[in-house]
Amino acid sequence: MIGSNTLEKIQTYGVTGSAERVWKRLKRRSGFDKWRCRNARVYASPSEEELLEIETDLIAAGVAVHDYEPERAEFIEFQKSGFFPERYHGGRNSGVWDEKLLEHWIAAQRLDLFNFGEHEIYVDAAACSSPWSRTLREGHEIKAFAIDLEVNPEFASLDYYRQEDATNTRFADSSVRGMSLQCAFEMFTGDDDLNFISEVHRIMRPGGRVVILPLYMHTHYCAYSTPDYFGKGFSDVDAVEYVRMDSYGVPSSRKYDAAHLKSRILDRITSMGMNYQLMALRNKQQFGDNIYCHFILEITK
Question: From first to last of its 301 residues, what are the pLDDT tens digits of the chain?
Fold first, then answer.
């Protein structure tokens, strides 16, 4: 007899998709992938000293880095406002609660999101399992959409949660006022980071803005993959590939160095007639003990 939970998963992911998930889960339990990666270089995030080194490299490449110091008191009010359920990203004691809320709050601040008009569109790109768009719709009457390659079953009944590739959306030309990507852009593998910039140019209205945060960078061009994907060709050939052993399910998480950020992303933005501003969060220690957001990229059409 097939249990109700199994049937629900088959209905959600299909027979093939469900079988793939079972196979991946069995591999994780066996420890095979971790054993396969036992001698691989393990990824380490840049230290504070290395972040300053990256900033020096950016300035040397002709890229200005602007100081950004938002008000802590305003963030505290946002935390209390109930935008996210207590269980979000493991809850308040997960170690990332403050970081995740901070990313959404900064995006809202930079987009002036709470002053959007009734018919002005906001897009949460690569939204994953975030309730952000639902909260914006139900509590603030903001015309928000959440898009990702898969829609979490919790939101499947909501037509504004859409299964959609952020590099090739269904939004009309020049129709979107604001968009944000929270902890997502680094997952755009291959040329999808380039294709995303082209899609931004197509769908954003004049004056529209996109906020990408954190914009992950390192002292050298690199990427990490989790053990199930490491060494299987998902990272760029000119990027140093590391493994991250504490999670699964990430084909490649790209970290730009100054040169690649400029040549791949910033030059592409300006060549399309758009503008950008690269900021560094200077007072992150005021927002919690585990805040790792440093670089923030804004694109304006």
Answer: 444 444 454 455 555 554 565 556 655 656 888 999 999 999 999 999 999 999 999 999 999 999 999 999 999 999 999 888 888 888 888 878 999 999 999 999 999 999 999 999 999 999 999 999 999 999 899 999 999 999 999 999 999 999 999 999 999 999 999 999 999 999 999 999 999 999 999 999 999 999 999 999 999 999 999 999 999 999 999 999 999 999 999 999 999 999 999 999 999 999 999 999 999 999 999 998 899 999 999 999 9
Q: How many CA atoms lie within 13 A of 139 on its CB side?
A: 11
Distance (Å, rounded) from C-alpha 204 to C-alpha 169? 12
CATH T-level topology, domain 45-300: Rossmann fold (3.40.50)
Which residue type is seen at 186? E
Q: How many Å apart are CA 68 and CA 243, to the nearest integer?
A: 32
Burial class of residue 210 in the structure, from the number of CB atoms within 10 Å of its CB (0-12 exposed, 13-18 middle, 19+ buried): buried
Query: The tokens 């939970």 sit on which residue?
Result: 5
Residues comprising the chain, all counted: 301
Report the alpha-carbon distance of residue 153 to residue 158 in Å, rounded. Answer: 10
E strand or H helix at 177 = strand 176-182
Which segments of the chain does DSSP mark as H helices, in order? 4-30, 32-36, 48-60, 72-80, 97-111, 132-140, 192-203, 258-260, 267-271
246 vs 117: CA distance, rounded Å: 42
Residues 197 and 264: their CA atoms lie apart, in Å, by: 10
What phi-psi label fits residue 254: left (phi over 0), alpha (psi between -120 and 50 degrees) or beta? beta
